[in-house]
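cache lookup: miss for this entity combination. No prior model stored, computing from scratch. Input as submitted by user K.M.:
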Amino acid sequence: MAISLIPKEEKFFELFEAQARHNVAAAQAFKDLARNWSVESPDFDKLRDIEHEADITTHEIIDKLNRSFITPFDREDIHELASEMDDVVDLIQSVSSRMKLYHVDHSTEDLVALADILWQSTENVLKATIELKNQKSNRRLLDYCIEINRLENAGDQQLGIALSKLFSGKPDPLEVIKWKEIYESIETASVKCEDIANTIEGILVKQG
Amino acid sequence: MAISLIPKEEKFFELFEAQARHNVAAAQAFKDLARNWSVESPDFDKLRDIEHEADITTHEIIDKLNRSFITPFDREDIHELASEMDDVVDLIQSVSSRMKLYHVDHSTEDLVALADILWQSTENVLKATIELKNQKSNRRLLDYCIEINRLENAGDQQLGIALSKLFSGKPDPLEVIKWKEIYESIETASVKCEDIANTIEGILVKQG
Amino acid sequence: MAISLIPKEEKFFELFEAQARHNVAAAQAFKDLARNWSVESPDFDKLRDIEHEADITTHEIIDKLNRSFITPFDREDIHELASEMDDVVDLIQSVSSRMKLYHVDHSTEDLVALADILWQSTENVLKATIELKNQKSNRRLLDYCIEINRLENAGDQQLGIALSKLFSGKPDPLEVIKWKEIYESIETASVKCEDIANTIEGILVKQG
């Protein structure tokens, strides 16, 4: 067995960066799916693969955490971050699979807008994760967190617009059931990105 | 910078009391709204303001927690309490905003009953929080916690009545979708009050 | 007061085993109900009783945890395990009570299948809990955890089949609202069993 030259602590940062990249990849695939909806889309398989890989990364982080005596930041924060990042991918994959189960045959501009906001959030989470690893500029890290919070507010507004439209006039109740869940789940993924930003801010303050 | 004469530990209790007051204010505004339903009601703005202030208080607590070496009780319990109290206000404000988005044009006696139970719970949470600060009588504190548990059971019963009515006969599915969510969310806020009571009971037991 | 001859640490294991037995009993009663659906079934009262007893056991565990300085494994893990096990019983009892409130007048083969998978999961959780107490064979314990994970995947597949059927053709939206919640809640109980397995695996890893 070769001796690792990378200090063990850095391994955590690398795993979080890998996980953040899974988040971006999932959000990207879902954005593509929302723009070019088709039940035949290869994005369904792509999302399933990403979800599987993200699962493995989560287990690696938790396993490493359980085996480590020294960690680069609080154990609870590592656990929290790992589980929040896993939730983002799970939510995205699960929405795509529900849309298939519900025999959804089209996308909407509101879904495209929500998917785009989510994708921007995951991009900012990735940048924050890289900054956390480099620990060069906390100022920049905080800016990413603020941007993620701003995006979540935008997502919440967008969800309001989507729901208000959905309930207007005399809608088909079945469409309401399906699309309410789809819109809400994508917005929940954005809330999870905000949770990630809050966890990272907490880590920074403690290192203060 | 002036030197604070209030011991730092007490600050936590003051922040929790402030947060409990936000909970009562939100439950009160929602109760008023449920009694005198109107899309023009000033209670919508009031709820938005309370939610904003509660958010600031939550951040103050978490920030103070992250910066403090010594805390009046377990760190996890402070974190738990802060997040549970924040959830109560969030849930209440979010229901009011959903009712607007869903173009709801009336209230029901079941909503009034649920809102009243929730308001009573928040009143008892406030009393418990003040007692926790004074630390004079654990007996009285436990009585408030027992009352909050009793109220949650009453809320659960009331939700059952409301749902059974909602699903009776041949209801409009759209009304079912809207009111099921409204009733359940208000009851969930009561469950959060019960969580708060459980967290407080845990703190008492640990202090032995 | 008699002096207990059982070391205090063992008491935790006994309480977890008792709780796991409540889980099995609840899953068994629900499986019977799903197979022989009747609003007059004695299983409703049975489920209410089990839920009440499980509640008492949960409080015993939490109370014991709050009073103990030394615990057989990490405090957070004990708390997590207790709350996850309580959730399983709560979810099962709550679904049965919702089915009554929704005036459901029949069962489905998909519900029977989901209930059967859940029952198998609780059986494996019980076996894992007994193994954890005896601490004889970690290999066997891990096998139970792997089986619980396999069952959760089977449950997820089964839920997909049930939902796809439910949304096929032109279904009655009220039936969709009811059955979507029923199916999802039973699958959520299986996910909770998987959470229990993950918590147990974490305990094992930490014990090295």
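stored under new cache key. Chain B is about 80% helix and 0% strand.
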